[in-house]
Amino acid sequence: MSVTEQTADKMKSEVFGEISLKIEDLCVDFLLSGGDLHAIYHLDFELPAHKMTGLVGESGSGKTTLTSAILRSVSTPGEITQGKIWFENEDVVKLSNDKLRKYRWRDVAMVFQAAQNSLNPSMTIREQFAETILAHRKNAGNKEMEEISKRLLKQVKLEPERILRSYPHELSGGMKQRVMIAFAQLLDPPILLLDEPTTALDVITQDYIFTLIRQMHDRTENTMLLSTHDIAIVARVCDYMAVMYGGRIVEMGDIFTMFEKPVHPYTQMLIKAAPSLVGELKERVAIPGSAPDLMKTHKGCIFADRCPYCEERCRTEEPEPELIGKEHLAACHRADFAGKEGQ
Fold this sequence. Notes:
Elements: E1 11-13, E2 17-32, E3 35-48, E4 52-56, H1 63-70, E5 78-87, E6 90-91, H2 97-107, E7 108-111, H3 115-118, H4 125-136, H5 142-155, H6 160-164, H7 173-184, E8 191-195, H8 203-220, E9 223-227, H9 231-237, E10 240-245, E11 248-254, H10 255-260, H11 265-273, H12 312-316, E12 322-325, E13 328-330, H13 335-342
Parallel strand pairs: 4-9, 4-10, 7-8, 8-9
Antiparallel strand pairs: 1-2, 2-3, 2-5, 5-6, 10-11, 11-13, 12-13
């Protein structure tokens, strides 16, 4: 049954149960002078409701483009050229400007990579909180806005009085990032997107912020999609993990299955390549080869050139996502064999 045929308020998935978002056959292309770059290629994806899902992959795999597409804010010259993004049984790709404005922040909010680029340097934090609230709730009073702002800042362990009167340049990087996390919760959105939320912060501050994010998720039970290159963080704070490569989701499952029994060779290699504070460095194995050229057409499996199990079929037929076990999907022609290798 298609999403448009559903009459229930909540969307359902045969694999993940209740879902908050469903993406069908999504393509995002960057129209460049030298040709089209296919950043997202015929991607299907379901975001489990009330869970935190980690989106991992090498730089250039399409993580940021996917989160931007969900918000329908792909930067120029990129554009959504095909596909549907379903939220509450409406296709986000076809939303009018008025509905799109309400969808952003009220329904889906985003914490971007660099907080210093998201905050207005000429306005205090109090003014920026008020501006965001009034953009969606024009009748909100000063007392109400003050109460909301203080409550959210306390939740991210910031002192409200000092922060609200401050300008962005008066705050540290970690404090600004926590302000942005509070901003994202202003309208209590059911979905929160986090795109590399701790970029350029020291490891201690990163760990503190991810702890706050997990605590916030446990308190609100909203749906979160965390895009990161740090697979160790995903293992610590997420419920599910989705692996991206070459603009496609190649594997997705619950966090325990993905680390104990990864099926796709790329997932196995990502885990083996992840840096660790314990163990010998020689135990880490870099993934050979380089990321695919997304300006070229790839006939078979996008990972074929780097895969140690590649066979002729892999170069001629693109694998479809296959149900491997409960809440576990993988797009690999040799899923059974690869699964045994990963155990």
